[in-house]
Design goal:
There is one protein chain. The protein has about 550 residues and is mainly alpha-helical. The chain has a five-stranded mixed beta sheet with strand order 2-1-3-5-4, with helices on both faces. Strand 1, helix 20 and strand 2 form a beta-alpha-beta unit. Helix 2 runs parallel beside helix 8.
Length: about 550
């Protein structure tokens, strides 16, 4: 029985059906997350409001109100989807989903070109079940499409390099790559890396005719990047670059180059470990890192050209990070994940094959440990999907319990989701604007968000940086304006600044001091609504008692 089962598993492992089964699992995981349909969270609602509210002609210009630097064609395509199909979350997240699903097929195709057959299965399994890739496939951000277009560039280069490069191939390759740049900003780094490798290898082989033809393709890509930079990126940098730089510096996203201290050296060691925690996101990060190192050594020895082609976008992104031109950290390097996984899988397969003769179980266990946590986490997320916010049930509860004379106070970070669901959602939770108050934010908040509204709240003499005590005074004064109302709803979302717990505790503490809580409702993802009586009647009764 065991022998027969082992034979069947072996047959499946070596069959042509297994990659399709893995791809099918990856598609199902992405569709489950997509159809879970969580409420839009802060970042998603920010960009949704911006491009839904502006006409096509204005999308080319940076938003006057919102801090965003998404690729131009990415915004135009989603704007087109909403124009045709409406403004629902499903439509807004459709392109990331399509990108996530198509990336599975492209990954399989590209991996077969660069790594061994058995390594392809390991890499494809990881690519199918890793949570960051699944999550970004249903998140209104360009990270999922960045992964797809990075793989598309590799497939395109493989196609071009395998041809005799007639004029039609040069034109097709040039136009296809040129278009990608407008959809995916980090695609430039992928193009720079792989393009440099291909040119170097062609020159090394003295394939002069092919070298010139590939240079013609790369020149078209470069001209497209120049056009993209001066017509779009330059505009973004003018009003947004400094803010973005400050935000990334707070995330410690820029490298200390050159390293001048022990702390700087520790930064790079920590950075390597962090990459294998996220975006690689394997619990046994040490095992994944070890497999990556073994994969590098193995490919350098046996597949040197393919190794450097896989490594080239990682090197290009690292150099851009060293020059402080691109943040080499976390979600910003998700587009590098396919190439990291291919090398990890090559290392895992090398370990498995080398240990087969002495102890079959060692290699098998190594691969199992590599795949176990990503697979179990994905299955857990199928049963208990994660979302940053779940605002819809909270707004429904407020509407169902709304009474004449009620006031709704929206915490400042809940503003974007609230505006989307109250104004742009297909079946909006409509509120009378006179009954809604958007809470004041710290002065520094208006540097990045709601930029046009800062003069409503602060004079030019108010410093951008404020202490926590000063912020609390601002919040208290803002809440005090609500005194005299018998029913005031306070709306919170779960995604608010780093002092979120402190803020919510302070808000409730102050509300308790000026009124009495009547009701409370919290969604599964901790978006919440509090209902307070701030008329002063309850306090007077308590004082009399």
């Amino acid at each position: 029985m065991i022998k027969r089962l082992s034979q069947r598993i072996g047959q499946l492992y070596n069959s042509n059906q297994l990659p399709w089964i893995i791809i099918g699992i990856g598609i199902i995981l992405r569709l489950v997350r997509y159809f879970y349909n969580p409420s839009l969270w802060f970042d998603e609602s920010d960009i949704a409001i911006d491009f839904i509210s502006r006409p096509f002609s204005e999308i080319f210009n940076p938003s006057p109100d919102y801090t965003q630097a998404y690729p131009y064609a990415f915004l135009i395509l989603i704007k087109f989807f909403t124009h045709i199909f409406g403004n629902s979350e499903y439509v807004l997240r459709l392109f990331p989903l399509i990108s996530g699903i198509l990336a599975l097929f492209l990954f399989c195709k590209v991996a077969k070109h660069y790594i061994d057959h058995n390594a392809v299965l390991i890499a494809l399994a990881l690519f199918a079940v890793l949570d960051p890739l699944i999550f970004q496939s249903s998140n209104l951000k360009p990270y999922s499409s960045d992964v797809f277009f990075a793989l598309f560039i590799y497939a395109l280069i493989n196609y071009i390099y395998s041809k005799e490069l007639k004029v039609q191939h040069i034109i097709f390759g040039g136009i296809a790559g040129a278009a990608v740049i407008w959809f995916s900003t980090p695609s430039v780094l992928v193009m720079a890396g792989i393009g440099s490798c291909i040119i170097i290898f062609s020159i090394g082989k003295k394939e002069w005719q092919k070298t010139w033809k590939i240079l013609a393709v790369l020149s078209i890509w470069f001209l497209s990047f120049i056009a993209y930079y001066f017509t779009y990126i330059q505009k973004l940098k003018t009003g947004f670059g400094m803010n973005m730089k400050m935000m990334l510096e707070r995330e410690n996203a820029y490298m200390p180059v050159p390293p001048t201290s022990v702390a700087d050296i520790k930064y790079f060691i920590k950075l390597i470990v962090e990459i294998f925690n996220y975006p690689v996101d394997i619990a046994f990060a040490g095992i994944a890192l070890f497999a990556f190192i073994i994969g590098c050594v193995s490919m350098y020895s046996n597949k040197r050209k393919r190794f450097f082609i896989l490594l080239s976008p990682i090197i290009a992104a690292f150099l851009a990070g060293a020059l402080h031109q691109y943040p080499f950290r976390g979600r910003f390097i998700l587009f590098l994940l396919p190439f990291i996984l291919m090398i990890v899988a090559e290392g895992a397969e090398y370990i498995r094959s080398k240990t087969m003769q002495n102890s079959r179980i060692i290699g098998v266990l190594f691969v199992v440990f590599l795949l176990f946590q990503p697979l179990t986490r994905s299955m857990y997320k199928v049963m208990y999907p994660f979302s940053y916010d779940n605002l819809r049930p909270v707004l429904k509860y407020i509407k169902d319990n709304w009474q004449s004379g009620d006031i709704l106070y929206v915490h400042y970070v809940a503003e974007y989701p609230f505006i989307y669901y109250s104004e742009y959602y297909p079946e909006p939770y409509s509120f009378n604007k006179d009954d809604c108050i958007i809470g004041i934010a710290p002065r520094g908040y208006y540097r990045h968000w709601r930029k046009q509204e800062v003069s409503k709240y602060y004079g030019p003499e108010v410093p951008i940086e404020q202490s926590l005590l000063e912020k609390f005074k601002i919040y208290a004064n803002d809440l005090d304006q609500l005194k005299g109302h018998e029913r005031v709803w306070i709306l919170f979302t779960s995604v608010i600044p780093r002092d979120v717990t402190t803020q919510e505790i302070f808000f409730i503490y102050h509300l308790e001091s000026i009124g009495k809580k009547i009701d409370f409702f919290e969604s599964s993802q901790k978006s919440a609504a509090y209902l307070y009586d701030l008329s002063g009647k309850s306090l007077s009764i308590n004082n009399q008692n």
